[in-house]
Amino acid sequence: MITPDHRDPLPFFVYGTLRPGEANHDQFLRGRTHTEEPARLPDAVLYDGPGYPYAVEAPGEAVSGDLITALPQAYGRLLAELDRLEEYTPGDPRNLYERVARDVVRADGTAVRAWVYVAAPRIAARLRAGGRLIAGGDWLARR
């Protein structure tokens, strides 16, 4: 399997405040997407954070979210803005999230490679030790 470059134009899998109807969707994604469709991230769980969730890799579980394909002309700027929002800089040990390429599964069962912001290793370790899981892995259903 080829590992994508951190700038490759993959779609995004979003599972928290960037989902349609959530606070950051309008600010960052409205008018900049080609498609938005339900999807699931296999082998991950969702932890509640301070106003936003963290996906943490965990075999056998899944996180609900949306697969977002950006408009080609918006992609580069959107990628940079999402990296800033998620406090991600390639190789920075202070990251809150890491942007990783993972297979996500569409509603029809097909898999597609997408960028996913998962909890950085130090955050993931803290969450596994004492974080609050979001039952069923769906940020929107937590209410």
Q: How many H/I helices? A: 3
Label the overall shape. globular
| Cα end-to-end separation | 38 Å
CATH topology: Hypothetical upf0131 protein ytfp
> Which residues sit in consecutive blocks of at least 5 with pLDDT less than 50?
none
Strand percentage, roughly?
A: 35-45%
Pfam families: GGACT
Domain Gamma-glutamylcyclotransferase AIG2-like: 12-140
Protein name: Gamma-glutamylcyclotransferase AIG2-like domain-containing protein
InterPro entries: AIG2-like_dom, GGCT-like, GGCT-like_sf
Protein topology:
Blueprint: E1 12-14, H1 23-29, E2 33-48, E3 53-70, H2 75-85, E4 97-106, E5 111-119, H3 121-130
Parallel strand pairs: 1-5
Antiparallel strand pairs: 1-3, 2-3, 2-4, 4-5
What does this structure look like?
The structure is a single chain. With 143 residues, the chain is an alpha+beta fold. It has a single domain (12-137), classed as Gamma-glutamyl cyclotransferase-like (Hypothetical upf0131 protein ytfp). It is 20% helix and 39% strand. The protein has three helices and five strands; from the N terminus they run E-H-E-E-H-E-E-H. It has helices at residues 23-29, 75-85, 121-130; strands spanning 12-14, 33-48, 53-70, 97-106, 111-119. Strands 1-3-2-4-5 form a five-stranded mixed beta barrel. A hairpin with a 4-residue loop joins strand 2 and strand 3 (53-70). The longest helix has 11 residues, at 75-85. It is globular and about 40 Å long.
